[in-house]
Amino acid sequence: MLRLTAVTLIALGALTGCAQTVNFEPAADAKNPGCAEIMVRLPETVGDLPLRETNSQGTGAWGTPDASVLLRCGVAIPDRASILPCVLVENVYWLRDDADAPNYVFTTYGREPATEVIVNRDKVSPGSALFELVDAVESTTETAQCTEIEDSLGAPTQTETPTTPAP
Questions:
Q1: Rounded distance, CA 152 to CA 148, Å?
Q2: Most CB contacts within 10 A, which of 7, 32, 79, 115?
């Protein structure tokens, strides 16, 4: 239900004035101290979209006149057996749900508190949005990693060439 509300806000954002506060419900664990760490690290822009004021703790929004990127910290921690595809952006794993395309919902995997980012793909590239938010989100505690990664953006890679010891 929260996801549907946030996606609806993206669609309704075009009806609000550019100076208005973005209204949406905070996540259940938005008061988690880890969320405060994310909030103080949020970028002023995502792509060329400016940061907007929100009415809820643990939230962020970018885009004028419509909020095309929404962030909500303190969402439910994803099930470790999730079947959603996992993407890695630098050191942060995200589960991608594109069921409501062009609005893509990304939820951190293996991080506490969990964070959700909703990106309107018609307005901004999801990869670039996540890349710009990774510095804020990686301040949370990593508890697990995805075992299968669909895509990796800016993540360190290991060489596949075996090294042989010198004689």
A1: 11
A2: 115
Closest C-alpha among 120, 76, 73, 114 to residue 98: 120
Are 70 and 59 a contacting pair, CB within 8 Å? Answer: yes
Go through the chain and tell me how many residues it has.
Answer: 167
**pTM beyond 0.90, yes or no:** no
